[in-house]
Specification:
With 343 residues, the chain is an alpha/beta fold. The chain has helices at 3-11, 27-43, 122-130, 144-152, 154-163, 166-189, 211-231, 248-254, 263-266, 268-271, 289-292, 295-309, 327-339, and strands at residues 21-25, 48-50, 72-75, 81-84, 92-93, 135-137, 194-198, 235-240, 258-261, 279-281, 315-321. Strand 3 (72-75) and strand 4 form a beta hairpin. Helix 2 packs parallel to helix 13, helix 6 (166-189) packs parallel to helix 7 and helix 12 crosses helix 13 (327-339). The radius of gyration is 20 Å and the shape is globular. The protein starts with a helix and ends with a helix.
């Protein structure tokens, strides 16, 4: 079975064959374990790939500059400056461009809405999709919650949410409008198999905001993105770090096809209730198991996940090869998933 078909069957709970694979890699992995990483990818090739930069070409050049994974400052497509102190991991925003002194978000002149991303050469994207049997996911995505934090700073943005700041909500509406147009472009005009969103919603033991606030203000945004994807026959994927148990039923209700969540942070026993309702797009515990686990512990963890969620679909063998991960454990994860379902 080809990769594209394997992933689609998994998302639709019609896969009686092998569990599909995916691997997220930070530049840290290439910098520190380049040879080991290449060997893993050769032995366990992923079934899901994003559109590569070589086929993601814009008629108008984005305003981004620098590299967020290298020490120093880098500017993203929105004009936000990220500062990095550790090579190979993503930098952080230290000076928001909508500062605390602007209580009502009246001056957003430094915010650059990246219309350049809407000048994507869709023919180049479609050329890539036609030339691979992998399941192709968009390389641009929606991230309204994190985008607002990048613009404002997390502390001030949480204050704005708590006080129901009108200026903040006006800006959120503008951000959401941009992401709906981006989703329309990728889903209507390209041959990718899936579109996705990324927002880190969880702390270690709870959501970062009250679940009712999430339901009131952010659930409708994701509904729009999911509906756009499904309107054009695309699958919808979603990523969030942290403890997100409270919103999983809502992600299912929205019709999301696959979610990349920290299921070991949430608890395998707690996600078992969602078996057959949504596909868990990984992951393996990167706080403890990937850095320090033994082969036996990795194997046991994978089998627990398989038992909890697999129903002729419902799982993708995925982890993040990032800072601190042991390449032997990344390899062991794929080996363990390969054995799942076999006598």
């Amino acid at each position: 079975m080809k990769s594209r078909e394997r992933v689609k069957r998994t998302l639709e709970f019609k896969n009686t064959g092998a569990v599909p694979r995916d691997l997220w890699t930070l530049p840290w992995a290439y910098n520190n374990y380049g040879a080991e990483l290449e060997s893993i990818l050769e032995d366990y090739p992923p079934d899901i790939v994003p559109v590569p930069d070589s086929h993601k070409i814009y008629a108008e050049k984005p305003v981004s500059s620098g590299n967020v994974y290298e020490p120093g400052d880098a500017r993203d497509e929105w004009g936000v400056i990220f500062t990095n102190v550790q090579r190979g991991v993503h930098g952080e925003v230290k000076k928001p461009i909508v500062g605390a002194e602007d209580e009502d978000w009246k001056d957003i002149s430094r915010v650059h809405f990246p219309g350049e991303l809407l000048t994507l050469d869709t023919n180049k994207v479609n050329e890539f999709c036609a030339g691979t049997d992998k399941f192709v996911i968009s390389s641009d995505l929606a991230r309204p919650f994190e985008r607002m934090q990048f613009l404002r700073g997390s502390e001030m943005f949480y204050c704005d949410l708590g006080s129901e700041n009108r200026g903040m909500f006006a800006m959120l509406e503008k951000v959401h409008d941009f992401y709906t147009r981006l989703a329309e472009l990728w889903c209507r005009d390209t041959a990718v198999d899936g579109f996705w969103a990324m927002d880190d919603w969880g702390a270690q033991r709870s959501l970062l905001i009250h679940p009712d606030t999430w339901i009131k203000y952010f659930k409708p945004l994701y509904r729009d993105y999911v509906n756009i994807a499904h309107r054009y026959g695309k699958k919808f994927f979603f990523h969030s770090d942290g403890f997100t148990l409270d919103i999983i039923p809502h992600l299912i209700e929205l019709g999301m096809d696959a979610v990349n969540l920290q299921i070991f942070c949430i608890g395998i026993d707690k996600i078992a209730q969602f078996k057959g309702a949504i596909t868990f797009w990984g992951e393996l515990d990167r706080q403890h198991l990937l850095p320090h686990g033994t082969p036996e512990e990795i194997d046991e963890a994978v089998r627990r996940v398989y038992s909890a969620v697999w129903a002729d679909g419902g799982a993708i063998a995925q982890c993040e090869f990032g800072a601190g991960a042991n390449p032997a454990n990344v390899r062991q994860m794929f080996k363990s998933w390969e054995l799942c379902g076999k006598p």
